[in-house]
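WARN  no MSA supplied for this record, continuing single-sequence
INFO  ligand: zinc ion
INFO  echoing inputs
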Amino acid sequence: MKMKAAVMYAPNDIRYEDIEKPICPEGGFLLRIKAVGLCGSDIRNLTTDSRKGDYPHVYGHEQVGVIEDIHSAVTEFKKGDRVYVHPGDPCMRCEFCLSGHTENCLSPGNYLARQGGFADYIAIPKSQVNARSVYMIPDGIDFELATLGEPLSSVYACQENIDVTIGDTVVILGAGPIGCFHAQLAKQRGAFTVIMTDINDKRLELAREYGVDHIINSNTENPVETVRKLTHNLGADKAISANPTTEAQNQCIYMLKKGGIGVFFGGVAKGKIAEIDTNYVHYNNLWLYGHYGASVTQCKKAFDLAMSSRFPTRKFLTHIMPLSEINEAIQLTQKGEAIKVVLVP
Ligand SMILES: [Zn+2]
Ligand SMILES: [Zn+2]
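INFO  complex generated
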């Protein structure tokens, strides 16, 4: 049996074509995909030599759909269930998983090695079912909206970990979809002032929709000076670098007030080394954190929040497009015209 998929053959060479339909795996199920989000990391993988020549490959990890076929060993779900599947599959046995920190699992599965969600169907393995990565989509929530549970999860985890709270001034460096999630969530957690920096004016203007009080184009003004000006020279309580540059990571440091918290949230190019003034960090009592992923519990809480009326999830969903137009969707996102594109197979 054949199905349609968006298959990557080389960087920027993605073809919508027929491939073999997966079969229902032992201990797992076969998902008929109804919607799949296009993530910044998907775009990075699809436009660079992410698999070192090992193609063809199907990416995509923000998938939701209907269970079409299910192995008899799985009892908590059934055929016809509408589900969201988080891509992670921590082992649930190592010391980190047992302590609740599944985001630090010592032997997690690698969803990037499996066929992804830019297709009509995806096989959901036993490891994902066992890792509690499958969630029922609440009644009244459409498939497109349900894809937004995944991108919110790491943002939610980060702000819970550093406790963004009432009265905070928070700087978000990077006005992409993740940066906009950060801004909105910070406001919702009680931040009084949210400042957003980027180098793209279009993105900055769009960001105003998501709880941002001040925008700074760091190409045309010095973001550190402007943040200092906006905070009576005190600096921000928290600064989160949500873009792929080490320059922004450095800016983070100088924007903070004494005792402030800086987060390196966005990954930078592999092997890239940053030089930082450690004495400045030392004498100003700064806390610098790295952030990646979310625990199973945080994923669940983020999904519940994204699906509830407490968070304006729908506002982030700027484009719904057919999966066959994935190349156009990538361009729209890269140009800063779309916040979040959801693809429908
Ligand atoms: Zn994602
Ligand atoms: Zn583990």
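The pocket of zinc ion (ligand 2) is lined by residues 90-91, 93-94, 96-97, 105-107 (CB under 6 Å).
INFO  checksum written, moving to next record
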